[in-house]
């Protein structure tokens, strides 16, 4: 096996110089850098990919900032992103962000070397966006977007919210409740906006219905559910802004002895893989194509690496997936 010592001898330099070329090439003269890189290539020294990345000024690494793993949406998309990147010759550095650690993650990512960044944790009015633009590194957001309306892949969130309201109304449910997430995120904001717009068009007064906005944690969803079951007039249908929220509500219903859909109809948005499980069978709204949003986003990001100044604005159409957690209202 070829060693760094062999590379040094072949290039006529010291092992220290070889190490410097691999780790801090900016400290090496151009002539010495070329000699060492040529020796690495000629001897097929491992790590050959490092030499290639130095020549191309690429790291072969993409950084993913995903949402928390208690949400199955991020389990699905992270898996898809990592697999797609690996199949196309890239390694992925994965960070799972929560409200508590996002600042630390952002600092780590912005200080490290990476070819591109893909993230789902951005706020609609997030100052991080300006920092990303100044880095001059390709990036894309998925599932959420910034107010600058660029570099994103999402589903049609407003239409998804409308479908939720219209579906429950078509089944005879007018006593509805909404459980969503922070309105500072385009996903939750858009879905809530579409839901309310549809109710208005259907003649249902939103000020008469309970709306709950959570941080999406299990603790807050449980607290909201306890408020719902204590209402004098309980809703017949619980409309959740995500499948993750809906599935947690399903668990709480069963824990308390409620029947689904007899006591509560439940509907979500995202159509995650877990929602299709036969033991869950959640009615939900998701992409018409039934593709993985993470796969679409990473594919677009890799295209931007080939084409400078690419502008990605992709909104996927949605449709209803009618399953077992909803049914016609019985008077």
TrEMBL record:
Pfam families: LacI, Peripla_BP_3. Keywords: DNA-binding, Transcription, Transcription regulation. GO terms for molecular function: DNA-binding transcription factor activity; transcription cis-regulatory region binding. Residues 2-56 form the HTH lacI-type domain. PROSITE patterns: HTH_LACI_2. The keyword DNA-binding applies. Coiled coil: none annotated. PANTHER family: HTH-TYPE TRANSCRIPTIONAL REGULATOR GALS (PTHR30146:SF109), LACI-RELATED TRANSCRIPTIONAL REPRESSOR (PTHR30146). This is LacI family transcriptional regulator. It comes from Sporosarcina luteola. The lineage of its organism: Bacteria, Bacillati, Bacillota, Bacilli, Bacillales.
